[in-house]
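BQ5605_C010g05842 protein (Microbotryum silenes-dioicae), 996 aa
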Amino acid sequence: MGKEEAPPPTIIPSELSASPDSPLSSLAVQLDVDELSKAYDASHLDRVHQSWRASCYLATAQIFLTGNATMEEKLTRKHIKPRLLGSLSTRRRLSHYREEVFGRVTLWWFHNLSTCESRVYCRGHDAIASSRTPRYRLRSQSRAQTECGDDASGPKVHMGPRMLNPTRRATTVPTLPVPESAVPTLSVTEQTHYGTTGGLAFAYSHTQALIRRRGEQEDGNEPSFLFITGPGHGAPAILSELYIEGAISKFYPEYAMDKQGLNKFVKSFSWPGGFPSHVNAETPGCIHEGGELGYALAVAYGSVFDMPDLISVVVVGDGESETGPTATAWHSHKWLNPATSGAVLPVLHVNGFKISERTLPGTMDATELALLYTGYGYQVRFVEYEPEGEPTMGGNDPADIKLNRNMAVSIDWAYSEIRRIQKAARSGQPLQKPRWPLLILRSPKGESGVCLKIHETRNKLTFGFFLLYLGWTGPLTDGKGKQLLNSFASHQVPLPAAGKDDEQLDHLERWLRSYEPEKIFQPEHKLSQGTSILNQNYDSVLPKQRERRLGFVPEAYQGYKVLDLGDWKTMTYEKGAEEISCMKAIGKFLADTIKRNPRKFRIFSPDELASNKLDGVFEVTSRAFQWDPETADKENAAVMEMLSEHTLQGWLQGYTLTGRSGVFPSYEAFLGIIATMMIQYAKFTKMALETPWRGPTASLTYIETSTWTRQEHNGYSHQQVGFISSVLSLPVHLARVYLPADANTSVSVISHCLKSKNYINLIIGTKAPSPVFLTPDQAEEHCIAGASVWKSYSTDEGVNPDVVLVGIGFELTAEVIAAAARLRKDFGDSLRVRVVNVVDLLVLASVGEHPHALSEAGFNSLFPPNTPVVINWHGHPAQIASLLFNRPHSVGRTRFHINGYIEQGSTTTPYLMLKVNKCDRYTVATNALDMVALNFSKYPNHFAQLEKHERVGRVVAQVQQKIAIYASKNQEFEKYAQETQQDHPEIGATATLAEG
């Protein structure tokens, strides 16, 4: 016979392979914006632009104002908020791209009125560019320009219109440092990452306009979009857009679109009881909070799986793009079937800087960015700000208009590409490795700031502020190469004393009026009942259908679809029959769920489904990986396997928050990777439950298996129980932790979890074959109770126990049963042992601390007062101790002893893994005898009955001997394992002593 050879797996060639000699410069998509923009009605683009300016104004007003939102009155101190909690620069850039954005107060203008000598300084340094003689050319036009050096290559400074009376001639200024004492320190409040949100409202407004245009072109059938933001601290801009579209007034009637409602709305930002400084579940249209960076992209993709009519636009900041979760989430489109799912349009906003340094994308040129994202599988289109002349306040620069035109053309192109890919797939001719569109939005950061003007007259210094404008490409330095503006140095709230300082207040008023609020709002005398105070032209660039406006999309808040679940009892097993893996039992139920719920249910697994014994689902479904020809284009492909827990969690969040259901099975040790993501999601869920207009969502259900008790072959790195603590730390009404001890309780638990809503469910179970301890009816009753006495494994069905042994988790319960059997063998009826199993962990919580907590009567019925209790628990002992802490007489060696995982492990055998963590049967039996002996001597009155006193006394007399025997047995088992690499045969047989 010839030698058999396995052929290598097929790799689908990229469409780029057809033209390998193409220049790198051709990778980015080129569009003739001037030509293509002729197809638009000029008034339409102008209205988009004006709506954008209105959003800029409202965003700025939210930062500063408590009233006078229409600016009909002169701005006074009473109109200014006491605490300015937001980055004004950021908010304005959110909606407006080229605005006079204020940055950190670090540059100081020194002007001697008597000599007309002026210099710009950096606090704590000599004059900027001190090695050169500066030449200032102050012009009498609306702006004054400053140049350093004898040529035009030095930094340029532009001062705002009408802010400073310019001098009439240029002057030469000597290099003189400003004394440190002459430069006051200004307090500022930072709540927003400057510049990261610069593209949010820009993308938002153009998405709305796209929906309107496409609806008019497609017989009124407006497409459905979601808008998802990465960095969440751009709330004022998003809230402004939502107010303009009417969503705020819809969901919060107190913020009506009249003068009174407008003033309330503006005041509410970062005000107690109002809107927080970042988008959250209280924000209409929001399904991602963005407090912790890195997850928006994955959430966006999760939102469109199995939603063929939905497109999610997601803005990813260039700082956020540095995170590991985002880096992997760029691959998400490779799991997206365009025939059955929607699409995602990512907008990467590259403004170049984070809080204190440049971003990675900000240091990459267009070719490098195009190469990177083309490699990810996208078609890259750049939308770049191109300065034209000098910028002005109010957003009416030619560069702004040009950028708007470019964005309109680019987003239309992206939409057409999405529809082209979908049409091919839905007509039965799917494109291989389709390249989805990606917009890269380049804008500068820190283009303007606040400077202090120092006047010296007759040796007396006075201080005032003026606006400092910088060109997009001409940042100032401190003379030592450190960039101050157009850099991370521009990050703070401007004019922090506007409520106290008249000059700052005056500058703020000029700034606000530069948006021309008289054109944004209609005069009150022209308003009829129910008419919006906003300029009616804005409606013409919003979707006509309210449910298509981004704040009204029903999938974002009312999309929950109830699962069709089978009767779990028909998928159970006979008690005492052959051993069955709990995970195989769950897998059987999940397969039935997938079959019953096409396109409503998915499994998100980090390449571990087969390892975790859940691969029975492949009898009814397949993997969804589109770039593998074996799994591409499969109908009802419900398994999402990718070796990135972060991306899977993001997918699951987006999938769940748009109405569907899913589960996340994983190795126990590695669920901790997404612990903070889960916590952030729980915070979102908590706020959603407190928001009346939000409907329910399916619970997030985690299946934690390949647990530490059976990770003896993988070693110490695979033994980690910390995710339990993360769930226990959640708000009590959200957390649920279940530890089913056999196949029947496992099926009951998974059925219950998939029916539940608004919870974080954690199921911890074994994948190893295990005995079936309970009948289906017993399992049902046990799961309803949460904890119960297992009579079959107790002395005299557990009546009047001398000691209670508690098992929580399969292997731990098996050891408890084995310990009870050994004690029965050694002591007969002289030692009365009760075996209790806990399946719902949080029944142990103190009364009032969790909805499932046992009452004191219920708790004492399981754990009689003054009776010692030994708990064999799957997690860290401290986790149980924290639950029991407020239970009367519960904590202390005389009452409860808790065994659990104590961070001891290696590559060993299953039994020795339990032994080194002091959770094995002989350690449990030893603990029981210790506790009985201690209780006997400490509480003699408890044994007042002569019969009981004599019976327990006989047990106590043998305690030392039996403990020594148990220790010897453990040594015997350990020696056997070390010699044979296997557990002693007696270990498997011990459990049979449980009954009989």
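The two ends are 58 Å apart (CA to CA). DSSP finds 26 helices and 26 strands in the chain. ok done for today
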